[in-house]
Amino acid sequence: QAEYRSAVSGVYWHKGHCTWQVRVLHQGVKHYRRVEPAGQTLLEIAQARRQAEKLHREVLKSLVAKAAVAEGAPERPERRKAPPSAKSAKYHSDIQGVYWHKRDCNWQVQVEQRGMRKYRRIQPADTTPEEIHRARLEAER
Asked: Which of 55-60's residues contact partners 24+ apart within 8 Å by CB, and which partners?
């Protein structure tokens, strides 16, 4: 399976997405990119791998250049994260077993019955706050 391997550290094949993943670690921060092959032939996958390897070099070069420019510039204040209590209520439920699944963008309900866990997903129709709230209320029922 050599066609699914790259000699460049940080470039790897993601089976689930069928894409080449590019991961660049710079100053403790991971930067991700994705390169999709035009098709599923070995030639197209190899071409996408070369594109991913080139993208890896370009991203790293860009980040190093930005860091060099930033060294001469005055230091920016560090961004502060909002305290947990100030987080948006649209992604929070007070009901045990009901939570927002960030990757799938839906509410998930986890219930245990007779020692077995059962799951249910409630998908909002769109990403408006009203629709997310409606889906949360449905999940809490």
From this structure: 55/22, 56/8, 56/10, 56/11, 56/22, 56/24, 59/22, 59/24, 59/31, 59/33, 60/24, 60/26
Half-sphere exposure at residue 138, Cβ-oriented, CA atoms within 13 angstroms:
15
Closest-CA residue to 28 (of 75, 61, 54, 63): 63
Express each pLDDT in 69-95 by its tens digit: 777 655 555 554 444 443 455 678 889
User: Taking a C-beta distance cutoff of 8 angstroms, is the pair 13, 20 a contact?
Assistant: yes
95: tokens are 């009901």
Beta strands per DSSP E along 1-141: 11-14, 19-26, 29-35, 98-101, 106-113, 116-122
pTM: 0.49
Which residue type does 23 have?
R
pLDDT tens for 26-84 read: 888 899 999 999 888 889 999 999 999 999 999 999 988 888 777 765 555 555 444 44
CA–CA gap between residue 29 and residue 10 (Å, rounded):
13
